[in-house]
Structures are given as structure tokens and as C-alpha cells.
Design goal:
This protein is of the alpha/beta class and about 425 residues long. The chain is built from 13 helices and 16 strands. The chain folds into 2 domains: about 240 residues, 3-Layer(aba) Sandwich (Aspartate Aminotransferase, domain 2), CATH 3.40.640.10; about 100 residues, Aspartate Aminotransferase, domain 1 (Alpha-Beta Complex). The longest helix has 27 residues. Pfam families: Aminotran_1_2.
């Protein structure tokens, strides 16, 4: 019951105050989902990163724990799939993805992320990167020359949008997430967000900010692109629900197995407003005719038999221990630094009191540790910092990395 009430508060649907109880928030009504209108069109359309030399501790953000890949569970699921797969299952099939996987995904995402969608709303794609590329192509074709992005925010996302001809408008964030006032000032009608665990600051979009953002999106059919890139990795509580469940016709939802299983699988999903789905499906078909069939069927099997959930529980415990080890090492060897963000994800942000973070990252690199300077991921002015990924290193190696970082940043003794 406590978690249910907390989820309502997190989504901005209720507000709670000590001594006053919990009440429905003002303007908290969820818009109805329109009836399906693209099924006929759907059927008509059926015709990372290597480690540099000299680096023995790679703390780049976004590098998952590939050693944790569930080989035995994947092999069992693949054998089960091959025992019953038909010849037609291995053909080109629907460019939107395997019907079985899409059916399993909508059930799992509804239960774990609060997503509201039908199986036909899911577009299986080659990870979040392809989903973003498809959205960029469709939106540019519709006249959207600019998109707003969080600042600081993912440099990879910004670079990819630029590649597809999109001008990105930086919008500052604070401890509650993106600032909607500056977002309005950009004039952009689309914004790309990481609301469950913002990259790279690690903050969570606050309930009041969620409501304000959804109100912005409801004006003139604006669009929120929700990158839910590591929401399954929350260590202190149940993660806040996805924005998509509150406004399916204003949010394009992106997810993948890159951070939970392996990025090399190139398997993700896009759930977009229905007004965009036919164009997105056509763009996907033109791009590659559809994603690889066998990995889709294996992932569907893992979702069906519960092995995917069991794997996530194991990985969460493993990653929490690694995050704790890195925090302990930083407290011991870099006490002047401030760590930002909630207990979640596969990276953390260390804000530094002063200095050029690019130069600082080079100093750290000289000790054999690879980190990202915060300035790589921002265009607006702000404090220096380092973005540290911890997923791919063991606790003892993370403590060693913290010691080297502290050594690199400590002033020389006279």
C-alpha cells in the first residue's frame, strides 16, 4: 500500500503532506487513449565502446556488466525456441517485430513501468539508438527542425540527432529535473528526456515537474521522447513509473536490453503515439526490413518463463554492491567531491569544487583509469565534474580506481 501511494505521488497524480493525508493532485486527470486507427496501414506495410591502450580500469558510463550475461538461461531459452520455431518464424515477418515478443513486452512494461499500450503499438528496433534515429527521420520529414535536450545530457543522443539533421536546443536541469520554463523559451515542440534516472546527473524528474512537463506536451500535440535507458536499475526503492503511462499520445517511449543483458544484442523497442506509428513503421521497413527474428523469440521466452526477471534481480544486487564500493572509495580518497543522483543506474556523477574537468580527466587517464569529464555532456556553463561508470568493474577494482582518481587530483606534497 505504501508503494502504491508513493507511486501516485511520484507520477504527480496525488500529493501528500504530513498531517493532511494524501489527496488527488490538481490537474491530475489522465487523458483517454484514442481508439486504434493504424492497424490496416500496419498490415499493408508488411510487403560501445572498446578500451583504449594504456587503460586497465574503464569507468566509461554506459558500459554494462557483460560478464553477468545469463548464458545458461539464454541457451535454455534458445533451445526451447528452436524446438518449436516454424519456417515462417525465421522469415522476414512483420517489420514492427515478432508478435510474440511484442505481446510479452507490453505485459512486462505495463507491470514494471506503468506503460499503456497494445502489442501493435510496439516497434521492435535495433536498440534505443535506432529508435531515436527513426524518430528523428520521421519528425524532420514532418518539419521539426529542432528538438530540446537536457543539459547536461547524453552527448551520444545529441550527436545522433545532429547527424539526422536535427538542431538540438539545450535546456538546463536542476535537482528536480528539466526546467519547463526554459524549455518553452526554446520554441521546440519535441524534447528528449531521461526522467527515471537522468543522464548524467542521476536526478529523478520530480512529481510537480512531471505535471508541468505533461501540461506543456498537451499543448499543440507536442512530443516527449522518453529514454528509459536504465530504469530497471534502482537500488533503494521501486523506480518511478514511466511518463508514457500518463500521456500515451504525447510520449514516445524507448527502451532496450543493452544495459540489462548486452548492447551487442541490438534489441530495443519504441512505443510512439499512434499518429506517428505508420511513418515509423515505414522508416523501419526501409532501414532494415525488420530486426533479427531469433533474438526476439529468445527474449520473449525469457520474459515468459521468468528468467529475465530473475536475471534483473541478480544484476541489481551485484550493481548495488559495486556502487557502494565506489562510493566508499571516493569518500576515502576524494572527500572533497560531491556525488549527485539517486541510488540507481550504472554510473554516478562526481561534482568537483573547481578546475577544468577535461584536464582532470586526462590526469586520471594517466593513472590508467578512463572517465568522462562532465563538460563532454553539456553545452551550458556549469560546475566541473566526472562521470564514472561502475557496472563493468568488481568492487575491489572500483576501490582501486577511486584511489587512483584521488591520487591524480591530490596536490603534490612539498
Amino acid at each position: 500500500m505504501v508503494q502504491a501511494y508513493q507511486r501516485l505521488v511520484d507520477e504527480g497524480l496525488a500529493s501528500a503532506r504530513t498531517g493532511s493525508g494524501t489527496v488527488v493532485a490538481r490537474d491530475a486527470a489522465v487523458p483517454p487513449r484514442p481508439a486504434a486507427d493504424r492497424r490496416r496501414t500496419l498490415h499493408e506495410l508488411r510487403l560501445p565502446l572498446s578500451t583504449p591502450d594504456g587503460i586497465d580500469l574503464n569507468l566509461s558510463p554506459g558500459v554494462p556488466d557483460l560478464a553477468a550475461f545469463p548464458r545458461a538461461a539464454w541457451l535454455r531459452a534458445e533451445r526451447a525456441v528452436l524446438d518449436r520455431v516454424t519456417a515462417s518464424d525465421l522469415g522476414y515477418g512483420d517489420p514492427g517485430g515478432s508478435p510474440r515478443l511484442r505481446g510479452e513486452l507490453v505485459g512486462w512494461l505495463a507491470r514494471t513501468r506503468g506503460i499503456r499500450a497494445d502489442a501493435d503499438d510496439v516497434l521492435v528496433c535495433g536498440g534505443v539508438a535506432q529508435g531515436q534515429a527513426l524518430l528523428a527521420q520521421v519528425l524532420v520529414a514532418r518539419g521539426a527542425a529542432a528538438m530540446a535536450v537536457e543539459d547536461p545530457g547524453s552527448r551520444g543522443t545529441r550527436d545522433q540527432l545532429t547527424h539526422w539533421g536535427v538542431r538540438t536546443e539545450p535546456v538546463p536541469i536542476d535537482r528536480n529535473g528539466i526546467l519547463v520554463g526554459p524549455l518553452r523559451e526554446t520554441g521546440a515542440t519535441t524534447v528528449v528526456l531521461t526522467p527515471a534516472h537522468q543522464f548524467p546527473t542521476g536526478v529523478v524528474l520530480a512529481p510537480d515537474r512531471r505535471r508541468e512537463l505533461l501540461a506543456w506536451a498537451g499543448e499543440d500535440d507536442r512530443l516527449i521522447v522518453e529514454d528509459d535507458y536504465d530504469a530497471e536499475h534502482r537500488y533503494d526503492r521501486t523506480p518511478v513509473a514511466a511518463l508514457q503511462g500518463s500521456a500515451p499520445e504525447q510520449v514516445a517511449y524507448l527502451g532496450s536490453i543493452s544495459k540489462s543483458l548486452a548492447p551487442g544484442m541490438r534489441l530495443g523497442w519504441l512505443i510512439a503515439p499512434r499518429r506517428l506509428q505508420a511513418d515509423l513503421l515505414a522508416a523501419k521497413h526501409a532501414s532494415d526490413l525488420g530486426s533479427s527474428a531469433l533474438p526476439q523469440l529468445v527474449l520473449a521466452e525469457l520474459l515468459t518463463n521468468g528468467d529475465y526477471e530473475r536475471h534483473l534481480r541478480t544484476v541489481r544486487a551485484r550493481q548495488r554492491a559495486r556502487r557502494d564500493a565506489l562510493l566508499a572509495g571516493l569518500r576515502a580518497h576524494l572527500p572533497q567531491a560531491r556525488v549527485r543522483g539517486v541510488a540507481a543506474g550504472l554510473h554516478l556523477l562526481v561534482e568537483l569544487p573547481s578546475g577544468d574537468d577535461v584536464a582532470i580527466a586526462e590526469q586520471v587517464r594517466a593513472t590508467g583509469v578512463l572517465v568522462h569529464p562532465l563538460s563532454w555532456h553539456r553545452r551550458l556553463p556549469g560546475p566541473p565534474g566526472l562521470v564514472l561508470g561502475y557496472a563493468a568493474q568488481t568492487p575491489d577494482r572500483l576501490i582501486e580506481a577511486a584511489a587512483r582518481i584521488g591520487q591524480a587530483l591530490s596536490p603534490p606534497r612539498p
